[in-house]
Design goal:
alpha+beta; 11 strands; 7 helices; three-stranded mixed beta sheet
Length: 267
Amino acid sequence: MSGSDRDIFSFQLSEVFSQDQVMVSWSPEPLSLPRRMQQEKSDFEQSIDKERFFNGAIARMERWEHRDSRLVLYLRPTDYFTLLFSNGNVKHITATWGEYYLSNALGISAVITSRDRKFLLMRRSEAVGEFPARTDVFGGHIDVPANGPGPCVFAAMEQELAEELSLSKESYELLLLGLIKSTPNLKAELVFRARCACNAEEIIESAAFAKGASEYDEIITIPARKSLLRRYLQENKSDFTPSAYGSLCLFLQYRNRNSLRRLHDKR
């Protein structure tokens, strides 16, 4: 990451985890907000177009720990309207009550590579609440279960890929590559790599029937080569969502580590 990228995102953790290495410590009670902030949020919610946006329950990250080759995520519920309120008032909330009182909704993103070695990106719809019309990777947020134990972040990522692309979990290999934070809204994002057994054309054909296809206007493919991805990021930097730009930079870091490891093994 260059110095000029710090206004877009920051690396929080760059480490590969399988599903059995990620643990969730779940607190079922939502965060209690200061009285004036709660009133401002309520006023904001009155202005939201309820036909356009659904106020679903999503997971908020309190903190995380990396210990003994495991990642522990401390999560509790928040909701989508709180996220929209937080995104629109980042400076006000942090200056008045502190960063802890932002929504801190935990995003999930997948860098998808196809069998024919292409990256699959999307052009977000004009109708979405966050970063409309920007280039993005596929993903979303972690839905909160109605009862029982806390959410599984791998299952949440699988759900997003099923809803947005109609991909079954048997059609790809999923690894967690780490954690980034978007600078504009101070929002954390878990970044996954989804290596798909399908060709790009097959994925696009499947996506035509996806439940969440209305969230994007088109699917973009670029060759899955590090040099081309670096150039594409440089040339289209301002067009990306912060989380997508950061996710792809983290993926490049992961690929560079793998290349160095293979070189070391050959020696």
